[in-house]
Amino acid sequence: MADIHAYEGAPEAEFGDYVALLKPRVMSLVVFTAFVGLWIAPVDVHPFVAFCAVLFIALGGGASGALNMWYDADIDAVMRRTQSRPIPSGRVAPGEALAVGLALSGIAVMMLGLVANWFAAAFLAFTIFFYAVVYTVWLKRSTPQNIVIGGAAGAFPPMIGWACATGGISIESLLMFALIFVWTPPHFWALALFMKEDYHKAGVPMLTVTHGRPATRRHIFAYTLVLAPFAIWLGLTSVGGPVYLAVSVVLNALFILGGWRILRRDEAAAEGDHYAVEKRFFKLSLIYLFLHFLALLVQRGMGAW
Question: Quick one: average pLDDT of 165-179?
């Protein structure tokens, strides 16, 4: 825990600093995938109920981010990518971040139960616990499988959205989960390849630290191969169709090609061009997930099978 004296004389926190605690970029993914999961479900939901449900799922995601920043303040202070976050920069005290995270968690879960159903609310509570405790407290600092297992937290939102509409789980929601779950490791491992010093300095056992970069490259390519069947299988369910399948086939071909290019690289070549291939793959991974879920929305608008 950071020394409270370190925050004496620091700039006074502004509203934007508390917003930053919620990891808004990560929250945008939570909001979008949860909305898609809710909207493509085979149960009509009143637009106001849908709006409120997605809002409280977003608050739950933001609460997870605040709790993560509270616990990881020591790591964030070391890593170049995270040094400017509200806690290590001294703009928000750790106790304030903890209070924000706990308060928003309670509000999000209770309100989602009232506006949607208590199964979805319990699912949201479990997701917050999984990210804040299972991933942040336990996995992140103890195993190179941190991002593999911990990635489940980011894969739950479309299932929660689906549960808001249906009150349960189905093969469609499980495949949306699988799409994000299997996508997460190559996405973050690509980042770890070109942010190579951060995880070493912070002592986080990312795969690049514990097994080296050649092993990480092999894992990235292997995961692109495993990911493709799950992504395409989703297109063969009740929420799929020709639009989604066409988008998925093209994206997975590009993703596998990108993984192959990373596999074939050596460190000398990567350092020579400042990890250009790895950075392109990372950007592609963002587009990959967004377009898959956008295609589900388009397919829903056009009518599924």
Answer: 97
